[in-house]
Amino acid sequence: MRVLLVEDDDRLAAALTTALTRHGHRVVRAGLAIDALRLAGGVDFVLLDLGLPDMDGLDVLRRARRVSSVPIIVVTARVEERDVLRGLRSGADDYLVKPFRTAELMARMEAVMRRGTRPLPVTGHKVASGDVEIDLAGRRVTVAGEQVVLTRRELDVLLLLARMPGVVRGREEILDEVWGDPLLSASRSLDVHVAGIRAKTGRPWLVETLRGTGYRLGSA
């Protein structure tokens, strides 16, 4: 696999390059954001540091996500919860805090690849899954042509999943986006609303649960 390593620290970049090469990957290294954006379209995977000298890594992430679905793991020293949430919301497939073990990095890369390539964001106003149509702009859901009435939060959860079909949204990410409080992850609020979506639409597959990870829009 061709891996783009975006890291401005020469010593860390050299160590990671050695480890990745040992695991059979071909490594392309970029120390600047401008080079990372130029190279991202020609690789199979990106490891992105956020502390770059010419541009904040989150901006690099957002720009890359506008044009590419390449898997991206943020590899950074930023440990604050808000930074983790920003990274995931901006399009990262995973977030790994330095220092870390090489074995953990490889395991996370394999997990991201197993989940499949992240699709580009939906640019239209409607998303279809089976006989379910989700109108993103109109905030309307129909099943077999008949409108289904959901609560505001049920609808917010479903629209969040529908904006990027197939992408796994973590529990904390959903709770922070919809409820404004990621610490609600200990409650069952999200589970109750997901159950409501499944029951009211009569399509239990519409919201798929990935145990220990989160939820994504399902397909019939």
Automatic annotation (TrEMBL):
<feature type="domain" description="Response regulatory">
    <location>
        <begin position="2"/>
        <end position="113"/>
    </location>
</feature>
<feature type="domain" description="OmpR/PhoB-type">
    <location>
        <begin position="124"/>
        <end position="219"/>
    </location>
</feature>
<dbReference type="InterPro" id="IPR001789">
    <property type="entry name" value="Sig_transdc_resp-reg_receiver"/>
</dbReference>
<feature type="DNA-binding region" description="OmpR/PhoB-type">
    <location>
        <begin position="124"/>
        <end position="219"/>
    </location>
</feature>
<dbReference type="InterPro" id="IPR011006">
    <property type="entry name" value="CheY-like_superfamily"/>
</dbReference>
<keyword id="KW-0804">Transcription</keyword>
<dbReference type="GO" id="GO:0005829">
    <property type="term" value="C:cytosol"/>
</dbReference>
<dbReference type="GO" id="GO:0032993">
    <property type="term" value="C:protein-DNA complex"/>
</dbReference>
<dbReference type="InterPro" id="IPR039420">
    <property type="entry name" value="WalR-like"/>
</dbReference>
<dbReference type="GO" id="GO:0006355">
    <property type="term" value="P:regulation of DNA-templated transcription"/>
</dbReference>
<keyword id="KW-0238">DNA-binding</keyword>
<dbReference type="GO" id="GO:0000976">
    <property type="term" value="F:transcription cis-regulatory region binding"/>
</dbReference>
<dbReference type="GO" id="GO:0000156">
    <property type="term" value="F:phosphorelay response regulator activity"/>
</dbReference>
<dbReference type="Pfam" id="PF00486">
    <property type="entry name" value="Trans_reg_C"/>
</dbReference>
<protein>
    <recommendedName>
        <fullName>Sensory transduction protein RegX3</fullName>
    </recommendedName>
</protein>
<dbReference type="InterPro" id="IPR001867">
    <property type="entry name" value="OmpR/PhoB-type_DNA-bd"/>
</dbReference>
<dbReference type="InterPro" id="IPR036388">
    <property type="entry name" value="WH-like_DNA-bd_sf"/>
</dbReference>
<feature type="modified residue" description="4-aspartylphosphate">
    <location>
        <position position="49"/>
    </location>
</feature>
<dbReference type="Pfam" id="PF00072">
    <property type="entry name" value="Response_reg"/>
</dbReference>
<keyword id="KW-0805">Transcription regulation</keyword>
<keyword id="KW-0597">Phosphoprotein</keyword>
